[in-house]
Amino acid sequence: MKQSQRIVKNILAGALGVGLGGLLQLGAVVYIARSVGVTLFGTYSFILAFAMFFQLLADSGLTNILVRELATKPERMGEILGAALLLIWAITFAVGALLLAVIPFLHFPFQVKVLTALMGAATLTQFHAAGYGAALRSQEDNELHSLGFLLHKVVFCACVFAGLKGGLGLTGVVLAHLIPNIFLLGFYKYLVTRRYTRPKLCVDYAEWKYLLTHSLPVGGATMLRLLSQQIDVVILTWLTNLQTVGLFSGPYRISLALRFIPQTMSIPLYPLYSRLAIRPDAKPQLQAAYERSVKFFLVTGCAVATVFVTCAAPLITLLLGAKYRAAAPAMQILGMGFVPFFVSNPFPLLLTALHEQRFLLWATIISLALRVALNFALIPPLGFVGPSLAFLAGEIVLLAIMAARLRHIGHPLALFEIAWRPLVASAAMGLILVATRGNSAASSLLAVIVACTVYVALIFKLETFSADELELAREGMRFVKPLIARWSNQPQEKTP
Question: Over the stretch 246-265, which tens digit does the pLDDT of each residue have?
């Protein structure tokens, strides 16, 4: 299978899995928000953000480094994975103990503290699932990884529905996080043991030291990047009240569900970046791949942002109900933030491939520090609009810093030349959506379809993608036959 075909296969698998999974998660979030009320939804958002912090602390980039090691040393998969899985258990106990030590200091009733501990167990279970998922990603079996993600969301939705219909309230919602994560762990473990190897847990101090040492810069940046997605809710809870947190959490959780799309679609680029980065003669190819990826994510991000900015009020009313309509300004600002967020997704992968992990860490620290400072400065006067502006500013600054560094090391980006065409298409799309705003639901749906059609037509009419890029895309789409051949010839289990 050609590299273009592997990339398209993995991107489509990720897009399908995360697209459908994201819609399922969005539906579950909407159902929770409508069922438990604004205040309890704010409590749920805080519990999830708090528990997610400890998951990020536990992982610290370990699974990302594990992907790289298993991809470059597949003959040692059983040995490396066995040592890594035991290390994951050791980290789980350490971080779990820290979580239990912090929970008593939270200013919540005892029942909420118990649910916080249970949510912590759920997120740490997901850390174990990510260990096995790293093996699937390392062998570029992204279709299997995406299948697990999708099934996880199906189970999540079923558990949310059953828990709330059964009258369990917030307890049912928390259990709806734990049960699917246990399922995902079992599913990934089954695939790895059937297709690759049966890893045996083993103590390997040298391997542990290597994994931890190499994961610190990348892991620190990844942890801070993901932490920045939760810090807004934590600070908002601290400075305001759960009613305000609930209003902000409505559009914010919707935006988080959609952010999985660029994150997952950028993953297949990592092997390509890494292979080209170690070859001095491949710098032009790496530059071309860099520009193509930025162009692709910019085109996608502009379309999503336009819908969020122009249709914020009806969209939030449709999804969450009239009681969340006041949060429409937050949704508009979060929508604008999609553009730098989408565009910046390939940058950490490229910087890591170019051995710029430490710079990536410092850039992420600067962005997070700015975001925290803006939260404290803007939340008191602006309420839930404050963290929305902080998110937008943080994403713009992070993108600018990373692009400047890549330019400095010989990979400049003609951003205006790449961006003006999608921006023109976005303006036309936005004009159609604004002009038809306030019509019936059927007319609004038709307007969205027409607007998206106009956007796509202008993207091609303005020649956003070159003839070579379109040919490369057509070549990549012919991945089905090589994929069938590969699967038909691949053994069910491989041992190192």
Answer: 888 888 877 876 776 777 77
- Cβ burial of 72 (10 Å; 0-12, 13-18, 19+) is exposed
Mean pLDDT of 388-417: 91
Query: What's the DSSP call for residue 73?
Result: -
SS3 237: helix
Q: At what angle do helices 3-59 and 142-165 cross, to 10 degrees?
A: 50
Return left, alpha or beta for 493; rule: phi > 0 is left, psi -120 to 50 is alpha, else beta.
beta
Q: Give the Cα separation of 254 and 419 in Å (integer).
A: 26
Length of the chain: 496
- Spatial CA neighbour of 85 closest among 100, 101, 74, 70: 70
Single-letter amino acid code for the residue at 466: S
Strand, helix or coil for residue 60: coil
Around 327, how many Cα atoms within 13 Å sit in the side-chain half-sphere? Answer: 30
Separate counts of helices (H) and strands (E) for the chain: 19, 0
Nearest partner of 262 among 149, 362, 339, judged by Cα: 339
Write the DSSP string, 420-477.
HHHHHHHHHHHHHHHHTTTS-HHHHHHHHHHHHHHHHHHHHHTT-S-HHHHHHHHHHH
- Asked if residue 458 lies in contact with residue 424, where contact means CB atoms within 8 angstroms, the answer is yes
Distances (CA, A) of 429 to 216, 312, 417, 438, 455: 43, 15, 20, 16, 6
| End-to-end CA, the chain | 23
Tokens of 100: 């239990």
Show the tokens assigned to 199: 């890893």
Place of tokens 């979030």: 29
Banded model confidence at residue 454, pLDDT cuts 50, 70, 90: very high
Written as one string, the DSSP assignment of 329-362 is HHHHHHHHHHHHHHHHTHHHHHHHHTT-HHHHHH
Tens of pLDDT, residue by residue over 170-214, are 888 889 999 999 999 999 999 999 888 888 888 888 888 888 887
**Dist CA 288 CA 411 (whole Å):** 10
Would you give the DSSP letter of residue 413?
-
Quote the mean pLDDT of the chain.
84
At which residue do the structure tokens 């796509």 appear? 456
Tell me which DSSP letter residue 140 carries.
Answer: T
Cβ atoms of 229 and 387 within 8 Å: the answer is no
Token couple for 42: 């704010």
